[in-house]
Write a structure and sequence with these properties.
The complex is a heterodimer. Chain A is mainly beta. Chain A contains no helices and eleven strands. The model of chain A has no long low-confidence stretch (mean pLDDT about 95). Chain B is built from no helices and eleven strands. At the A-B interface, strand 5, strand 6 and strand 10 of A face strand 5 and strand 10 of B.
C-alpha cells in the first residue's frame, strides 16, 4: 500500500534560516514523488517533481530510496515561503496520488 | 498545464439534499480524480473518474454516496448525496496526463451542510 508520512504539522523558522520539511514514503514499486504547496487562499499547486531534479523558488528535494525519503530543503527561508506544504506519492497502474498530512511552514520576520 | 474550472466555488446546503460539483478542463486529459479536504486535514482521494465507465472508488467511499460521471475527456461531475454535516468539506478536482508529470488541481468547492 502507498503511504506518505510528514512528521511535522508545523515548522516555524526565522527569515534567512535553512528549512527542511520531512517526507517519508512507503511503496513497494517505483515511486513518483512530488511536493505541492498551498499558499493562503490559493489553490494547491505543484512545486517539485523528483524526476525533474529542478530547483523551484530556491527549494530542492532529493529522492533517497535507501531511506525512503523525499525531504524538501531551502537554504534561506523567505517570509513569502509561508504556506502549507504537502508531500505526495504516485506510482503503479492506478496513477493516483496519495498525500501526506501536510506541514505548515511559518517564516517569522 | 491544464486549466480547471470547478463549480460551484462554495455552497451551503440543507442536510438530506444533494449537490453536484462540476469540473471542466480546457484540454483533454487522461486522468481525472476527486479529492476531499476536510477542515484542517490533508487531501483524501475519493475516486478516479474513468471516461466512459464507472469510477473507481477508494476504501471508505461508495458510489451511492458519491456518484461520479465522466462523459468525455474534459468534463466530470461529483455528486454528494443525502448530505449530512459530516460532509462539510472542500471537494477538489484533479487532472493530468500521467502521474509522473504531477497533477493540476481545481480551486475547490467549499461545501457546508447545515
Amino acid at each position: 500500500a502507498q503511504r506518505v508520512t510528514q512528521p511535522e504539522k508545523l515548522l516555524s523558522v526565522f527569515k534567512g534560516a535553512p528549512v527542511e520539511l520531512k517526507c517519508n514514503y512507503s511503496y513497494s514499486g517505483s515511486p513518483e514523488l512530488f511536493w505541492y504547496v498551498q499558499y493562503s487562499r490559493q489553490r494547491l499547486q505543484l512545486l517539485l517533481r523528483h524526476i525533474s531534479r529542478e530547483s523551484i523558488k530556491g527549494f530542492t528535494a532529493d529522492l533517497n530510496k535507501g531511506e525512503t525519503s523525499f525531504h524538501l530543503k531551502k537554504p534561506f527561508a523567505q517570509e513569502e515561503d509561508s504556506a502549507m506544504y504537502y508531500c505526495a506519492l504516485g506510482g503503479g497502474a492506478t496513477n493516483k496520488l496519495i498525500f501526506g498530512t501536510g506541514t505548515l511552514l511559518a517564516v517569522q520576520p | 498545464s491544464a486549466v480547471i474550472s470547478q463549480k460551484p466555488s462554495r455552497d451551503i446546503c440543507q442536510r438530506g439534499t444533494s449537490l453536484t460539483i462540476q469540473c471542466q478542463v480546457d484540454s483533454q486529459v487522461t486522468m481525472m480524480f476527486w479529492y476531499r479536504q476536510q477542515p484542517g486535514q490533508s487531501l483524501t482521494l475519493i475516486a478516479t473518474a474513468n471516461q466512459g465507465s464507472e469510477a473507481t472508488y477508494e476504501s471508505g467511499f461508495v458510489i451511492d454516496k458519491f456518484p461520479i460521471s465522466r462523459p468525455n475527456l474534459t468534463f466530470s461531475t461529483l455528486t454528494v448525496s443525502n448530505m449530512s454535516p459530516e460532509d462539510s468539506s472542500i471537494y477538489l478536482c484533479s487532472v493530468g496526463v500521467e502521474v509522473g508529470y504531477g497533477y493540476t488541481f481545481g480551486s475547490g468547492t467549499r461545501l457546508t451542510v447545515v
